[in-house]
User: Fold this.
Amino acid sequence: MLSNTSFKEETNISELRYPNESREYRDARDSLLKDEQELVEKVKSVAERRRNLPLGGALKEDYVFQWANDGKVGKSVKFSELFAEKDTMYGPNWDNPCPSCTSLVDGFDRTSYQVTQSAAFVAIAKAPAAQINAWAKQRGWSQIALVSGSDSSYQADYKCQGDSDDMQWPVMHVFKRRGGKIFHFWGTELSGNHVDTVWPYWNIMDFTPEGRPDIPTPPQNFRSEFLEKHYLNKE
Assistant:
């Protein structure tokens, strides 16, 4: 693991070499290292611009969801209550069981432990709370906060779905609480793989010699017939 050092120091570390590597490999790797550093700097630059966005519109309404976590399945919770003592909420929305969104939450479940030290982190789905809870148990999700928006217009209002409740998208939104009011801060607006930067599967596959496979969703041991019929086969 590289420490937070300058590019020059990182280059010196790379000069240690790996066993039996060729000069051809090292030259190519050093050239790639420069591009990787430029990518890191670009990501940092974009993140800074994102942090400096002015506040978006005030929350349309204090939506009411239902908890889908063990011990409180079906209990109502208001949008404002999801913040707890935090001032930021970071929420992916997923269709149950959508292969792509399931893959996202597989990674988010463990990540949420660190994220929730600084921000509220909630996954919202349109499916009923009991159905979400059953799927969470099957996947082994135990950390991330899960709520159902089955009786809420949140997904439709914040562009988390297509023409109907049956087509939910893997959308991420960030909200900020300031002066007792809640404002929209940022949301994914790109088409396609717009949440790739936080998607463990695709990012890890990018490091392999074969790269990410040319498939629309990560491999799973289950199928989503609705998505195959109405979305995936139309790609």
About this structure: Confidence is low (pLDDT under 50) at residues 5-11. The two ends are 38 Å apart (CA to CA). The first helix runs from residue 7 to 14.
